[in-house]
Write a structure and sequence with these properties.
elongated, 19 strands, six-stranded mixed β-sheet, Purple Acid Phosphatase, chain A, domain 2, single chain
Length: 389
């Protein structure tokens, strides 16, 4: 059986305020074409369909469109809700939609109720485990306490019990949205540690033939049967080196897995550039990034004037500007508390100006304004202290 594993669409998300609607539309077009051209038997979407619990209308329209297109192909598709999704909203109409071969698994109570598929080698049971927030689902699994590992372990115990009651040779596939130990995170995933320790051991998925994971945005293999597809688009500059793909998974008659990566369309390259403003604007080596989405870190000792405007003349898609002045080894590396110890308010303020503008002394007018400000604060404080209580 050929499976297409994807996750973390985050429909409705932007990239540093840059709309990704067209890029997400292009990805969904690509997904439908891969399903058609590669002879996919079932599509697995491992959570975070939307970027937020209340998605915008454009995001909902994208989801509605791809549901119709997948249903028209007659290819069964299984979705689970992720930690960004509203499980109740995503699951609306699940029973009715299921008749069209689109299976929405958003209810923790349905973890052991698989979508049953079959090929020439026999049955395949696909179990959809939605994101399980420990504080909300412990009681449903009969747990008095416990974090992510405990609730996911309890859900998998139900899966294994159901599988044991099925005909011998039934192959098992699980969709889950979790942070599995050994996975490499990015900056763009929402922390799920609120319900306890975030990670769960890979062993929690023992007993199944393939686990289609979602949550981490980098495509990665933890074991031949345990993989993250990653997000189809980059959602942070920490993903600059990631190749965005889906997994095309072939499940053999004995349950063994072979998989290959299917590249996703790239709307625009990412680039993280570092150097002085003059170097970024003049050096030929940066020419290849002129049409990329750019994160620029300026190392100038003194902050240049209008840096973003000047950068965008060469790199029109500069989205993030950071400052990390290069300092000499002779400059102190003490903590802030140690550096200001024993100094007065005015001296600390003057030091702050020098810190944010290395190499530039405060102007006489600036010093005058600071003195006036501190004197006004002292006078106001003194007057309040003299008032009767």
């Amino acid at each position: 059986m050929r499976l297409l594993h994807t996750s973390d669409w985050h429909l409705g998300r932007s990239f540093h305020r840059e709309s990704l609607h067209d890029a997400q539309h292009a990805f969904l077009d690509h997904l439908v074409e891969v399903v058609r051209s590669e002879g996919v038997d079932a599509v697995l979407v491992a959570g975070d369909v939307y970027d937020r619990a209340l998605p915008g209308l454009e995001a909902v329209a994208l989801f509605d469109d791809v549901l119709h297109r997948l249903a028209d192909l007659g290819v069964p598709t299984v979705f689970i809700s992720g930690n960004h999704d509203s499980a109740r909203r995503l699951g609306v109409g699940a029973g009715l939609i299921g008749r069209a071969g689109i299976h929405l698994r958003t209810d923790p109570g349905e973890c052991a109720e698989p979508v049953l598929l079959a090929d020439e080698h026999g049955p395949v049971a696909v179990y959809g485990l939605p994101y399980l927030e420990p504080t909300l689902v412990r009681e449903r699994f009969g747990l008095a306490k416990g974090g992510h590992a405990a609730v996911l372990g309890a859900a998998m115990d139900q899966v294994r019990a159901d599988l044991a009651a099925r005909p011998s040779g039934t192959r098992a596939v699980v969709l889950a949205h979790a942070f599995v130990t050994g996975g490499a995170p990015s900056d763009s995933e929402r922390d799920i540690a609120v319900g306890g320790v975030a990670s769960v051991p890979a062993s929690v998925f023992d007993g199944v033939h393939y686990a289609a994971l979602g949550h981490l945005h980098g495509c990665q293999t933890l074991a031949p049967h345990l993989r993250y597809s990653g997000s189809p688009l980059a959602y942070s500059f920490s993903e600059v080196k990631q190749r965005k793909t889906m997994w095309l998974v072939d499940l053999a008659a004995d349950g063994s897995v072979t998989a290959e990566r299917v590249p996703c369309p790239e709307p625009r390259r990412l680039a993280t550039l570092r150097g002085t403003l003059d170097a970024l604007l003049t050096e030929e080596g940066y020419a290849e990034h002129e049409q990329s989405w750019v994160q620029a870190t300026l190392t100038d000792a003194a902050r240049p004037s209008e840096p973003m405007e000047r950068l965008r003349r060469r790199f029109p898609h500069t989205l993030q500007l950071l400052f990390d002045p290069e300092r000499s080894e002779a400059e102190p590396s003490q903590s802030y508390a140690a550096r200001v110890s024993g100094r007065g308010d005015l001296e600390i303020a003057e030091g702050f100006l020098r810190h944010v503008r290395p190499g530039a002394e405060p102007e006489p007018d600036e010093l005058g304004w600071l003195r006036e400000g501190f004197e006004h604060v002292r006078e106001t404080t003194d007057r309040k202290a003299d008032l009767p209580r």
